[in-house]
Amino acid sequence: MITFEAKINDRIVRMYSNYPLKNAAGAIFKTLTQIESQDDNDIFDSRFVLGFGWSFFYTSERKDKDGNTFYVVETNDYRKNPFKDRTDDVTLALLAQNMQVEAVSVAKVNPEVATFRDTILVLKEAMNASDVYMNRTEPAKDGDSGWYFGLLNDPNEENHKPEDYLKLYSFELFKFRSEAIRVLELPVGTVAVFHDNNMTALVDGNDNPLKFTTTEEREKLAAKAREEWTAAVEAAKAAAGTDGETKKEE
Q1: Residue 102 forms part of a structural domain
Q2: How far apart (Å, rounded) are the C-alpha atoms in residues 80 and 32?
């Protein structure tokens, strides 16, 4: 587990992740710092909630082995029940953040917020299909993301019955099509096509192609990032004379 650390208003704040998601963690720390600098805002209050893109974040007071106080950033636990369970492993939340920020940036569109608790309409038959698509229309009500998940070139599209569909929370995409998490903040009108867990096409509401990165491109970037991270950690260990894993973000 990697530990990111920052000092906010003279208090130590830590974040734990399984991956070196430095930029995503840094964005959270920066936002917390900005909020804490404003009058009448206290990020260390147990009632504090930060809505940041798709996820929600909280601060929890802890004590180290020497009795010193520090704070840990927690998020909703997508591996359990995110409506009642929290975790200090923010890996999935940071991954979703990175995926969605990258998708919006590469496509060069304005994001439209969708949270983990917003619903999507899913054709049951599409959940285990190879070739599927997602289409975002205007949300029908609060709590509706506007996204539909269906079969590509569905021969029975006009004949489906209400019982053929499910309404799922958007975080449940992690269970059967994690790559679809990437597109959730793209605007109304967007259509994304997937083959298995790979996005193969992306267009806007006027059928104009939108740019996106392929799985292969992202894997190359991730490999490079891992090499850079490993080199930085090894250099830090050598300088400090320690085998620790902590990476501090000021």
Answers
A1: no
A2: 26
The answer to whether residue 249 scores a pLDDT higher than 70 is no
The values of phi and psi at residue 129, to 5°, are: -85, 155
Asked if residue 219 belongs to a domain, the reply is no
pLDDT tens for 52-107 read 989 999 999 999 999 999 999 999 999 999 999 999 999 999 999 999 999 999 99
Is the pLDDT reported for residue 159 higher than 80?
yes
Domain range spanning residue 148?
109-209
Burial class (CB in 10 A: 0-12, 13-18, 19+), 53: buried
pLDDT at 13 over 60: yes
Same domain, yes or no: 122 and 50: no
List CB contacts of 149: < 8 A, sequence separation 6 or more: 120, 121, 122, 123, 126, 127, 132, 133, 134, 173, 177, 180
Q: Report pLDDT for 100.
A: 95
